[in-house]
Design brief:
The protein is an alpha+beta fold. The protein has two helices and four strands, in the order αββββα. The relative contact order is 0.18.
Length: 123
């Protein structure tokens, strides 16, 4: 496979996070990747679907792992994509809800009196 050669992106964590965010945004508006798809992400906000043989990344929802890269990816990028891409592609991607919780160094999520330690929560 060949990379799309317009200023080829640097395949680093910034590139990978941008790709994950773009795919998550697509899923959020009801356009999740549902089938084997070739993708190109230029890092500046443009996510394109391409022919498989011209793609930087081939995403295959439902398979494990769910992507194949046209270039060798650094281990940190591969690990990031292994973890987050399955959440952003496939039929269930638009139904995913993530929770965020604050935790203190001693492992607590509330004060001794039961009040939440984050701001804006009711006890």
């Amino acid at each position: 496979m060949q990379l799309v050669s317009r200023a080829a992106p640097l395949f680093d964590e910034v590139w990978a996070w941008g790709l994950v965010r773009a795919l998550a945004q697509r899923a959020r508006i009801g356009q999740a990747v549902l089938a084997r798809t070739g993708l190109s992400w230029d890092g500046s906000g443009r996510l394109e679907e391409l022919a498989i043989e011209r793609a930087q990344l081939v995403v295959e929802p439902g398979l494990e792992p769910c992507f194949h890269a046209a270039a060798r990816l650094p281990p940190a990028v591969r690990q990031l994509l292994d973890l987050y891409l399955p959440l952003c592609v496939g039929a269930s991607a638009s139904q995913l809800v993530l929770g965020h919780i604050g935790q203190s160094l001693d492992g607590q999520i509330a004060t001794a009196g039961g009040s939440c330690i984050c701001t804006g929560c009711a006890p």
